[in-house]
Structure formats: C-alpha cells, structure tokens
Amino acid sequence: MNNSGNQITIGCTKKIQDQIKEVSFKALPKQTISSIHFWHSNLTYFNRRKAILFTHDLSRFSFLLFNIIKEDLRNFDDLFIHNLIKNLRIENFTDTQIEKLLGSSTAKVNLVKTHSRSVLGSMNDFMLMIPYYLERIDLPDPNNKSKNNYFLNKRLNETPVLCSGDGFFPIEKLKELSEEI
C-alpha cells in the first residue's frame, strides 16, 4: 500500500495482522513523525464477539466497533473510513474538518505495524475502561447488533488522557487539531 504524506496510516497490532492475511505489514521508518493522519487499531473480544478499537495517535480520539466479522476485515479500509466519518459527524465536526482529517484517504489507508508504545498504552487504558462503561452507563438497547456504539465512543472521548505530561480530552484535542491544519 502506498505511504503518502497525507494518507491515513493505521498501525495494526499483531492480532489485527493475523486476521488480515492478504496485506504485507511493514514497519514505519524510525524517523517518521506522527501526523494528524496516524491511527492505531487493536482487536479484542466482548461477549465472545470480535471488536476493534481505533485510536488517533495525537489526540487519542477513539471508537470501538463491535460484532466484527471476516467480511469487515476484508474491507478494513471501508470499515475504518465509514465509521470514522459517522463518529465525527455525531461529534459535530464540519465537512471541512472531516476532509482535513481524512487527507487523501478516500479509498485506501496505509496499514503498517504498530509504531507508538504510548498510543498502545492509552488503548490498553481504554480497554480497561470499556467494560466499566458498558456495565454502568445507560446505553440504548443492549441487544442492538450495530457495530458502532456512539454512546460508548462519546464517553471514551470525554475521558481525560495524560500523554507526555500533558492532560487533555480526546474530543477537544481532535477538534483543535482539525482546525489547525
């Protein structure tokens, strides 16, 4: 896959790599500087069903997708872009902000090996919080088979994050970054 400067790049954990066999995952060069187009993804399980957590490198804005099936993994690019746009719209991002965050990634994203232990640490923190949120917050119909739980994702993005000594809320940080570009 092409690695252009304003194309979305997703660092995939080994669990994701094992599920997407038709892609050759390469490591990013050491000198690569994280950009607004860099994300990470991790595969996990809730109630014995696959779920994927996507986390933005700079803001830690995250969204979790439930009920993942093999077909979703074959269309990983579409799964990510479609649900990213949905989550951004729910968070009242403008079309201009969404276009800036997507860069040139209208069809394909660049899938690579994970490249930030800091982002992976934040993702692990979120993974510990998710069961708590699922048990304690009022969510719509628990039998809903939707992949995207906007209420949970909104809650995750309103959770303060401490990163390199700087504390922030993921949703506020992503909005700030999308206005700077």
Strand content: 15-25%
**What's the number of structural domains?**
1
Sheet with the most strands?
Answer: 5 strands, mixed
CATH class: Alpha Beta
Radius of gyration: 15 Å
Structural class category:
alpha/beta
Give the overall average pLDDT: 87
Low-confidence spans: none
Count helical runs. 7
CATH architectural name:
2-Layer Sandwich
Order of helices and strands: EHEEEHHHEHHEEH
Q: How many β-strand stretches?
A: 7
Distance between the termini: 25 Å
What would the CATH topology be?
Nucleotidyltransferase, domain 5
Shape: globular
Amount of helix: 40-55%
Spatial strand sequence of the major β-sheet: 4-3-2-1-5
Which features does this protein show?
181 residues; alpha/beta; Nucleotidyltransferase, domain 5; 5-stranded mixed β-sheet; two-stranded antiparallel sheet; 7 helices; 40% helix; globular
